[in-house]
Amino acid sequence: MQRQFNNRRTLMDHARCVLGVAALMVFAAGAPLRALDNGLARTPPMGWNSWNKFACDVSESLIKEMADAIVRTGMRDAGYHYVVIDDCWQVSRDANGNIVPDPQRFPSGMKALGDYVHAKGLKFGIYSDAGTGTCQNRPGSRGYEFQDARQYAAWGVDYLKYDWCNHSTQDSAASYSIMRDALAKSGRPIVFSLCEWGSTKPWLWAKEVGNLWRSTDDITDKWDTGKKSDGLGVVQILDILDGLESYAGPGHWNDPDMLEVGNGGMTATEYRAHFSLWCLMAAPLMAGNDIRSMNDEIRDILTNREVIAVDQDPLGIQGRRVKRDGDLEVWAKQMSDGSRAVALLNRGAQGKTIQVSWTDIGYPAQLGAGVRDLWEHKDLGHLKGSYSASVPSHGVVMVTIKPE
Ligand code: GLA
Question: Is 218 among the catalytic positions?
Answer without folding.
Answer: yes
